[in-house]
Amino acid sequence: MANIALIGLGAIGSIIARSIERSQHTGYYFATTPRQSLSIKYENSLNETYSIDSYTLQDKQIETIFNQVDLVIIATKATSNHTILKKITPYLNQDTPILFAQNGMGQTEQYNQSVPSVVYISGEQLDDKSVIHFQDQMLILPNTEHSQIIYDLLNSDDLTIVLSERFTRHHWKKILVNLGINSITAITMSTCHIVHSQYAVEWLTEIIREGQSVCPIDELKTDNFRHELIQLYQSYSKEMGTSMYYDLLNEKQTEVEFIQGYLLRYAKSKKIDTPYIQSAYSLIKAKDSINQQLVSSKNVAVGDSRNIQ
Predict the structure, then answer these.
(1) Class for the domain spanning 169-293
(2) Which of 55, 145, 188, 192 could link 59 by a cystine bridge, Cβ 3.0 to 4.6 Å?
């Protein structure tokens, strides 16, 4: 048995929490607000509910908890990493691994014991207590000593952990997958039904082509791979959204800096022109900015109303 701290109970974190709850390990769960239950809904209309006690990173118990954990999993948006690591690392043992179960690239360099992963878990957070799980429950990790520890703790029928000698290839493949489908659903504010339009396919072909021009993995640069991505997108449920689509819909900050932004910075370092990625980045950042202004305005309005009372 092990003590596992899981930070983030959204679409990804909830599936990891389900696996921990079904195991013999002790889970310590952290969310934005405390909760006593976790509900997972499935497309076949089945529901599961788990009784849990969750904390926030402001709780006084965090020093005791993080002093004793064998593994930390961060399943929040990558935009929260700096704040989370600043809060928890003073209490961690120096050899405690941190698994980042997040989309994108470039977010794991901040901690020596960090383990990146390629996440294949699709879902949507419905509210503070429930998520809907669409498909997949797999994490791909580089084959390292820390990854082996994580594999031994987490691999099960409920959560497949794959250790790969070709992790870099898997990581670049996933960021190319995310580049196309996240960009088009975020820009058009449409679910995956949009990819069945020929106009969308033409646009996706060009932005993926640019991503391939940046990618250092030769086997991911082929026309066949680009066609495979289009077919993959068209295999998704038409009602399924992406993380960026749901973030913008719910006025939350997106992970654009770790997907489109990462590719854009990488392309500029190699002096590669990527106008489609640039436009996708700029449009999503613009919507991000507007949403953050709306959230700030709402917070100010709430504060003003409390002062009036």
Answers:
(1) mainly alpha
(2) 55
